[in-house]
Each structure stands twice: as C-alpha cells, then as structure tokens.
C-alpha cells in the first residue's frame, strides 16, 4: 500500500486514520506537527484519530493479535480491514489516473505549443509570400503600363514613319519625273512656249507711265 500524502510504497510501520486513510510515519508526524489535515479528505487530524499499524506484521502478531476475539467481531474487523484495503486501492488507482491525465495534458500542451509555433511560422511565411505577391502584382501593373506607353510610342513612330515613307515616295517620284524630263530630247525642251519676260520691257514702263497719269 502507498502513503496517501507522498504516494510512496509503505513498508513496515505506517499510520492509519479514522477517516480511512493511510500515511507514512514521516507524513503523519509532519501533519501532527503542523496541526494539519488529512491530504485526502481534509479532516483535521490529531493523535487520537491516528493509529499506528504494521504493514507486514510478523507471525507472532498474526497468530496472537485476534486471539480471544469472538468470530462476529473478528468478521466485522476483517470486513472493515478489507473495505479499508479496497478504499486504498481505489485511491491508488485514482492517483495513477490523475498522474496519467496530468502527463497526457502536459504532452497535449507541449504539442499545442509546438503546433501554435508552427502555425505562427506558417502564418509569417504566408504573410511574406502575400507581400511578395502584392509587390509582384504592382510590378506587373507598372510593367504593363510601360508596355502600353511603349506600344503607343511605337504606334506614333510607325505613323511618322509611314508619313515619311509617303513623303519619300512622293519626292522620289517627283525626282524621277524631273530626271525623266531632263533626259528627254532637246527638241521637246525648246518646243515649250515659255513667255519672254524681257522682250517687252518697254511696254511695262509705258504701262507704269499710263497708271501715273491716270492717278
Ligand atoms: Zn508519505
Ligand atoms: Zn482522510
């Protein structure tokens, strides 16, 4: 059996209480010294409520302790002792269960802590990624804006080039026609009916005189 305070296995001498609990001698004297209470049921304990017991009594005790006691009392005492033993086993089981539950809870808490840590890491990584995505989106937006501008500039330059091409073609054809006419036979050149601006200068002067007179 185990002490109900420190849960160490008790051997030899121990103390049983009237409230049905068992203590090692060290814990029993500690409780008595501090005017303390039973660790299981909180009953305030005094020396009169505690009884020393021998957990492993010798043969002499076994043979003589109950000698002279009537079978009725003996059976009653045996029943009480067995009930005490069962109570102790139940307490031990409860203690073990509590310990297992506490260990399990501790493990769960440690796992939860780790899980929370991992979750935070994942969340941080996700936030970083989201930020990067946002930056990339902005970059894409600015690049597409640049692209649009470049396309517009390209279209404008193409228009200008087309115009220049047209001008070039026009000039070229003009040049070709001038060149063609320059290369034609001389008879054609002289056959043109050009007005002779210098032949009738006298007439112009006369006309000027006429205008002056009229005014
Ligand atoms: Zn103890
Ligand atoms: Zn008690």
Automatic annotation (TrEMBL):
Stretches assigned to coiled coil: 126-181
Domain of life: Eukaryota
Gene3D superfamilies reported for this sequence: Zinc/RING finger domain, C3HC4 (zinc finger)
Pfam family, one: zf-RING_5
Record domain RING-type: where: 2-43
Keyword terms: Coiled coil
Record keyword Transport present: no
UniProt name for this protein: RING-type domain-containing protein
């Amino acid at each position: 059996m185990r002490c109900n305070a420190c849960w160490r296995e008790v051997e030899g001498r121990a103390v049983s209480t009237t409230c049905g609990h068992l203590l090692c001698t060290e814990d029993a004297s500690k409780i008595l010294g501090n005017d303390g209470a039973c660790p299981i049921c909180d009953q305030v304990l005094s020396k009169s409520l505690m009884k020393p017991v021998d957990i492993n009594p010798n043969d002499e005790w076994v043979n003589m302790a109950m000698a002279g006691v009537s079978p009725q009392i003996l059976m009653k005492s045996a029943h009480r002792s067995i009930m005490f033993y069962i109570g102790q086993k139940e307490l031990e089981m409860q203690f073990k269960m509590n310990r297992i539950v506490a260990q399990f809870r501790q493990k769960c808490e440690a796992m939860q802590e780790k899980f929370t840590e991992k979750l935070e890491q994942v969340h941080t990584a996700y936030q970083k990624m989201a930020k990067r995505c946002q930056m990339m989106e902005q970059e894409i937006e600015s690049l597409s804006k640049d692209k649009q501008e470049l396309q517009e500039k390209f279209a404008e330059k193409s228009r200008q080039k087309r115009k220049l091409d047209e001008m070039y073609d026009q000039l070229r054809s003009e040049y070709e026609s001038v060149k063609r006419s320059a290369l034609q036979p001389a008879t054609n050149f002289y056959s043109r009916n050009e007005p002779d601006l210098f032949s009738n200068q006298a007439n112009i002067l006369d006309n000027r005189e006429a205008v002056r007179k009229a005014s």
